[in-house]
Amino acid sequence: MMETMYHTLLYAMPVLAVIVFIALFFVKAGYGIFQSRQWGISLPNKVGWVLMECPAFLMMLFFWLQSPARSSSVLLSFFLLFELHYFQRSFIFPMLMKGKSRMPIAITAMGVLFNVINTFLIGYDLFYLHASTYTEAWFTTPSFIGGCLLFFGGMGINLHADHIIRNLRPAGDTRHYLPQKGIYHYVTSGNYFGELVEWTGFALLTQSTAAWIFVLWTFANLAPRAYAIRNRYREEFGREAVGSRKCLIPYIF
């Protein structure tokens, strides 16, 4: 039954990713810079982020603990990398947030659903279906080494970009500011770009089909939002202020 569910979701998720990619060009998620009451009842942003992200951390912990192959050092490295990201996103990132923004419960619920499905696909793939594939020799493969470099490089970009965004506003200021430092000198949505690089690295180092589908979903989710943020910045600060930067990914990021 679990394997049937895995394969069903594996085929369904890319199709849904395309649908979400198209839909997000017309519907803006009502949180962050696009916070809106039209999405209904909301939670404090910190609470929403913890509830949305922690299922991935807890579910992957369960998959690894229950796996008969959990003693594999290669699988342990996959587990630790995944958990490193979600520990930061679930418990550290929300606590560093400033301001009193809110997140609609509907957004939180959709985030929980996606994280549960994504973690199921990756966890079941790595720790059950293909666990025997990952021998000690995996550590010396170009895909693992290159993937690790991308993963930590993307994480570094993401953390640095979040730090810049958090420190744009003086205390008590609610206005929007155009970020220009660091990665934002090159891309409008540096934190999104970093996350895409990070999960591309994870997919490369694991060579997991489920992880590559996660990369597709990351792009499908973040690219339209980055495009919307770019347009918002152009409206507030002018086309020249936004378009003058050196774009690593023109137009979208």
UniProtKB/TrEMBL annotation:
Keyword Membrane appears in the UniProt entry: yes
Catalytic activity: androst-4-ene-3,17-dione + NADPH + H(+) = 5alpha-androstan-3,17-dione + NADP(+)
Major location category of this protein: endoplasmic reticulum
Signal peptide region: none
Gene Ontology cellular component terms for the protein in this record: membrane
Biological process terms in GO annotation: cell differentiation; steroid biosynthetic process
Pfam families listed in its UniProt record: Steroid_dh
Cited InterPro entries: 3-oxo-5-alpha-steroid_4-DH, 3-oxo-5_a-steroid_4-DH_C, SRD5A/TECR
Compartment(s) of residence: Endoplasmic reticulum membrane; Microsome membrane
KW Oxidoreductase (keyword) present: yes
Gene3D superfamilies membership: 1.20.120.1630
Residue stretches spanning the membrane: 6-27, 47-65, 71-87, 107-131, 137-159
A GO term for molecular function: 3-oxo-5-alpha-steroid 4-dehydrogenase activity
Membrane topology qualifier: Multi-pass membrane protein
Keyword entries, A-Z: Differentiation, Endoplasmic reticulum, Lipid metabolism, Membrane, Microsome, NADP, Oxidoreductase, Transmembrane, Transmembrane helix
3-oxo-5-alpha-steroid 4-dehydrogenase C-terminal domain mapped to chain residues: 102-253
Chain segments annotated as coiled-coil in the UniProt record: none
Its job: Converts testosterone into 5-alpha-dihydrotestosterone and progesterone or corticosterone into their corresponding 5-alpha-3-oxosteroids. It plays a central role in sexual differentiation and androgen physiology.
PANTHER family in the cross-refs: 3-OXO-5-ALPHA-STEROID 4-DEHYDROGENASE, 3-OXO-5-ALPHA-STEROID 4-DEHYDROGENASE 1
Protein name: 3-oxo-5-alpha-steroid 4-dehydrogenase 1
Protein's organism: Phocaeicola barnesiae
